Amino acid sequence: MESQNKGSVEVNFDGLVGPTHNFAGLSFGNVASSQHGGRTSSPRQAALQGLEKMKALVAMGMKQGILPPHERPHLPTLKKLGFQGKDEPAILASAAGLAPNLLASVSSASNMWVANAATVSPFADAADGRTHFTPANLISMPHRSIEPPITSKILKAIFKGDSYAHHSALPRTPAFSDEGAANHTRFCSQYGERGVEFFVYGVSAKSTSTGPKKYPARQTREAFEAIARSHQLDTKNSVFAQQNPEAIDAGVFHNDVISVGNRDLLFFHEKAFLDTDKVKSDLDRAMGVHEMSYIEVPSASVSLDDAVTSYLFNSQLLSVPNTEGSVMVVPSECAVNVAVKSYLDELEKSQVGVNKVVYYDLGQSMSNGGGPACLRLRVVMSPEQIKTMQARVLLNDDLIADLEAWINSNYRDELHPDDLADPSLLAESRKALDELTSILKLGSIYEFQTA
Ligand code: SUG
Question: What angle do CA 75, 147, 230 make, to 5 degrees?
Answer without folding.
Answer: 145
